[in-house]
Amino acid sequence: MSTHGAIIQAMMAFSCRAAAERLRQPSEPLTHPPAFILIVPLFHVTGCVPVMLGCFAGGVKLVIMYKWDADKALELIEREHVTNFVGVPTQSWDLVHSPRFSEFDTSSLRDIGGGGAPAPPALVEKVSSSFAKGKPTIGYGMTETNAYGPGNRGQDYVNKPTSSGRVVPIMTIGVRDPEGNALPVGERGEIWFKGPNLIRGYWNRPEATAETIVDGWLRSGDLGHLDDEGFIYVEDRVKDMILRAGENVYCAEVEAAVYEHDSVHEAAVFGVPHERLGEEVAVAILVKAGAQLTAQEIRDHVAVRLASFKVPAHVIFFTEALPRNASGKILKRELQRQIADAK
């Protein structure tokens, strides 16, 4: 349950964050009026609040796509002089790797990115080098914050590609242990939010509301840490952690190691049941076009980067994109079911 006031606070806070960012990292004046392209569903909080409602509130042109198509998006960017591209990392990847990318004028773009999932550092660098004036961006928000939260952009993002950005106006951010105690800078814990942009609770779900909202603080369900410059790093979901023989395995950490392999296009790490260990590490991989990869090559690749208990026991390869929901997040439960069905 959100309120009109919370949504307005989020929309205005996005403007404050953008203004603060321009002071920190000045950019060239726009040669065309600002224009956003809507490439995510309106039933997703990013599409609804910061993109659609934000454009309406600011009198900004909004170019709406019926469904995602990278070449069509490039055509619209050129024709409508789009300045802001807000989606999930997969869409940014599709854009810069389109075989027709060089055919279109994308010089109007200033911000390319979005949120919904972490972007591999190689993608951040690719976006940074592919546009004349456009800068890579990422935001960290959720439905419960009306999409508002930290954001990372430009050279900050290139320098700290695994960070979702700095602490932002109107929102207090803390990192806490399982008992709710505040943790010092650098220590991993659950990320908590507090601010006027938060939802008030879940409709007809008082138990879920009481579990998630504690003394005005929202428990994000994400694990991460803050550094000494105020940048936040989202490392995993609390419930997306694998407990293998008493050892904590953070899926995002293993995914980052897998993505360092040049032949990997997409990867998702998840846990599968194991009779003795409790859970075992599994990874689903979409290999880049024309590349070849074996399960053992992936295990060897991860083994030289991480502890042995984090090396995937199960490696499955896909010939097409990994299953995702409408907001672009990989459906790990579907991947778990596929492994279970294969046994």
TrEMBL record:
Tagged with keyword Ligase: yes
Keyword Ligase: yes
Domain AMP-dependent synthetase/ligase residues, every copy: 1-203
Biological processes, Gene Ontology terms: secondary metabolic process
SUPFAM superfamilies: Acetyl-CoA synthetase-like
InterPro entries associated with the record: AMP-bd_C, AMP-bd_C_sf, AMP-dep_synth/lig_dom
Positions of the AMP-binding enzyme C-terminal domain: 253-329
CDD domains reported for this sequence: AFD_class_I
Pfam family, one: AMP-binding_C
Transmembrane segments: none
Keyword vocabulary terms for this entry: Ligase
GO molecular function: CoA-ligase activity
Similarity comment: family membership: Belongs to the ATP-dependent AMP-binding enzyme family.
PANTHER family per UniProt: LIGASE, PUTATIVE-RELATED, LONG-CHAIN-FATTY-ACID--COA LIGASE
Protein name: Unannotated protein
Origin species: freshwater metagenome
